[in-house]
Design a protein that fits this description.
By secondary structure, the chain is α/β, with parallel strands linked by helices. It has one domain: Rossmann fold (3-Layer(aba) Sandwich). 36% of the residues lie in helices and 24% in strands. It has seven helices and nine strands, in the order αααββαβαβαββαβββ. A seven-stranded mixed β-sheet has the order 5-4-3-6-7-8-9. Strands 1-2 form a two-stranded antiparallel sheet. The relative contact order is 0.11.
């Protein structure tokens, strides 16, 4: 009887705590379910990535009209003909580069900033480039509110960010017809780049590029569909 009396207050405290957390973040349960079903359930097992994707509030990186769908298993429009990638692809691409706490990472295609946020949870420093000014400035405002290790630049990502090179890893979130040589040049020896390669609005191949002492190697990973890699006029 004494044990039951002690257990009841404990359970009440747990219920109050859970209710408070849900009122603070009504999307917390959806985020947890997204990670279990879409990310871990499809083969992403990097503990840091799973924890980061459960922490980062994806709904803050989509337009208000899209928030009800923020944790669905699909890309979502973010304006200007661009999209935020489906959660699984974000997790998969991040796992491919295997980010470490000391890493300096370059992202090409900031979009709304979600991929950069995941990288910021895992790496020492993130540099990210967005060619569309409206998206770049919006993402910069949100990322600066959340992190102190992300720097955003508006510009043409084809040429990378030479003054901050070399990078331990590069993540490209738009489909390029070819692998941009400047990005390969800016990888550290032993560094990895993940990039979709192929024709716009068609199925492309997600490629892994690994920098070697002499040259680089490429490997095709999975078929994907990304928005085109935009260039400055």
């Amino acid at each position: 009887m004494l044990r039951r009396k002690m257990l009841i207050p404990f359970l009440l405290t747990m219920l109050i705590t859970v209710s408070f957390q849900q009122s603070q973040d009504p999307y917390a349960e959806k985020r947890k379910q997204m990670v279990e079903d879409q990310i871990r359930g499809r083969g992403v097992h990097h503990r840091g990535i799973l924890e980061a994707m459960e922490r980062v509030a994806r709904h803050r990186f989509v337009p208000s009209a899209q928030r009800p769908f923020a944790y669905h298993d699909r890309p979502l429009p973010i304006g200007f003909g661009q999209t935020i990638s489906q959660p699984y692809i974000v997790g998969y691409m991040t796992q491919i580069i295997d980010p470490r706490p000391h890493y300096k990472v370059l992202e090409i295609g900031t979009g709304s900033g979600y991929q950069a946020a995941i990288l910021a949870e895992l790496a020492a420093q993130v540099y990210t480039i967005e060619i569309i000014p409206e998206l770049g400035h919006s993402a910069e405002h949100l990322l600066n509110e959340l992190y102190n290790n992300v720097i955003v630049k508006v510009g043409d990502g084809y040429y990378g960010w030479e003054e901050h090179a070399p990078f331990d890893a590069i993540v490209v979130t738009a489909a390029s017809g070819t692998i941009p040589p400047p990005l390969v040049e800016q990888l550290k020896e032993g560094g990895k780049m993940v990039i979709p390669v192929g024709s716009p609005y068609m199925t492309q191949q997600l490629m892994l590029v690994e920098k070697k002492k002499q040259g680089y190697t490429t490997r095709s990973l999975i078929p994907v569909r990304f928005v085109p890699f935009r260039r400055s006029e």
